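Moderator note: this is an archived Q&A kept for reference. The question asked for a predicted structure of one protein chain; the sequence and the answer are reproduced below.
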Amino acid sequence: MSLDDVISARDLIGPKVLRTPLLWSDMLSSISGAQVWLKVEALQRTGSFKVRGALNAVGRLTEEELRRGVITVSAGNHGMALAFAARECGSSAVVVMPRTAVPAKIAAVEGFGGRPVLVDGSRMMESMEAIREREGQTFVHPFDHPHVMAGQGTVGLEILDDLPDVDAVVVPTGGGGLLSGVATAVKSRVSHARVIGVEPEGSTAVSQSLAAGRPLRLESFQTIADGLNAPWSGPNSFAIIQRLVDEVVTVSDDQIAEALIVTLDRVKLVVEPAGAAGVAALLNGQLSGVRGRKVAVILSGGNVGREALRVFLSHG
């Protein structure tokens, strides 16, 4: 994947996605000592950045592939995005999800016209492959598909359009699709800008893979940030992250929960736990070299259910 791929993705999906705002935050700037802007992908269609990659991938399918439909595995956000993209492109989508998926995200997949299939979390890929073999859909990987990665990279292009002299971009990180796409866009145009991934402590597929020097599958993974709870790092996204990303840091679930509350209470934006990961790293001083610098933090999604939000607020 190259900058040209990201630009091509922007041209293809532009009419179907929102150009989300990059908002200055006085409060986060004061606390962190950095100059902080927030890229609010929580306001994006389907509630997260995922729709960018899904639309780019589905929009490049042949007529025959569209007729057969698409299939994926997802805890929610990618599945919602793929169902939306399939509907927009005149296709159909099956989304294999864990039984523990957030009920609001299951309902949203259905609302966008997709067919959720609930299975045990350990059997998602096996179940997906069985359905695909039987029904013939095209698999759209949630984070390691080159077209998905290029679509996610359009977030980086928009940040550069609004803040061309950005010094650092902070990216919530699960499997690495958003991180690899944004790094491709940012480093190709502003080579000195730092790109920093943020993972939850309980699900560190990318940082463990970086330490090992190869993509790894995790034996165990658990975090309140279900959008970042990837069980493995993919070879395509990993190769780009290994080459372009400056640092990957981790935050605890408690720090994520606190960041979600601060973002709601002080910034007046609703984000899901995954979307609060970058703010958590900023609030807890885990981003090196950003004091006095222009920093863009991606709020990657806003799909938090009412019950979950009530729990966070009751412990805030």
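Archived answer notes: The chain has a mean pLDDT of 95.
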